[in-house]
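hiii, so i know i said id send this last week but things got crazy w the move. better late than never?? heres the sequnce for the chain we talked about at the cafe, plus the structure i predicted for it. fair warning i was half asleep when i ran it
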Amino acid sequence: MASKPLLQARVTTSTEHAEASLDTLTHLARRLLGDDVTCRTQTRHADRAGYVRVYLTVTREEERLCHESQGSARTADT
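okay and structure toks below
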């Protein structure tokens, strides 16, 4: 079972600013929520030429690790 996101963001930006936008969003999420978070990013095409959609999903790191270890324990029991 995946942990619930603490934060999700979608931004439409020019292709040339996509990497900087994700870096800035990730930096701000860590400042706001702490260093013990996992930040996942995605970039997809936007409908407008020369633009992309960038996504940021932030989850708590210990929750992710807890869920992974619980999943491993269940697998070991079967």
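btw Strands lie at 7-14, 37-45, 51-60. thought thatd interest u
miss u guys!!
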